[in-house]
Amino acid sequence: MIVAGLVLAGLAAVLHVYIFWLESVVWTTRARAVFGTTEAEAAATREMAFNQGFYNLFLAIVTAIGIALHATGSDAAGAALVLAGTGSMLAAALVLLLSSPDKRGAAIKQGALPLLAVVALAVGLTL
User: What is the model's pTM?
Assistant: First the structure.
């Protein structure tokens, strides 16, 4: 189960790097179609999206470092970082779901992999 959790965490990290790219790199161009924003809305929220994208990148980095630590034998530190990263991803998805029910689809997409990773790791670590 631990390996499955680490693979799921890795996929969640990749997804959050993609979200970083959308929010911080192509917010006013390609991301407009993904998020359904107008040119004016994208321009008005560019700085906020840029900053938010980096939060997603940092969560992916923490998760990736945790996976690398676990793979190199630092099981406790690795698991702690993976759970911190994926747990934060999951918490952010829950905040989105609860604060903006109309964005339920995005919250589920953002939170499904971290949820599965947290559950698999928790089960694997307790066995």
Answer: 0.95
Residue 41's domain spans which residues?
Answer: 2-126
Torsion of CA 10, 11, 15, 17, to 10 degrees: 30
Helix, strand, coil shares of the chain, percent, nearest 5, are 90, 0, 10
Q: How many CA atoms lie within 13 A of 101 on its CB side?
A: 0
Full pLDDT tens readout for the chain, 127 residues: 999 999 999 999 999 999 999 999 999 999 999 999 999 999 999 999 999 999 999 999 999 999 999 999 999 999 999 999 999 999 999 999 999 999 999 999 999 999 999 999 999 999 8
Residue with tokens 């604060």: 99
- Neighbour tally for 121: CB within 10 Å: 25
- In order, the DSSP letters of 10-65 are HHHHHHHHHHHIIIIISTTTTHHHHHT--HHHHHHTHHHHHHHHHHHHHHHHHHHH
Tally of structural domains, the chain: 1
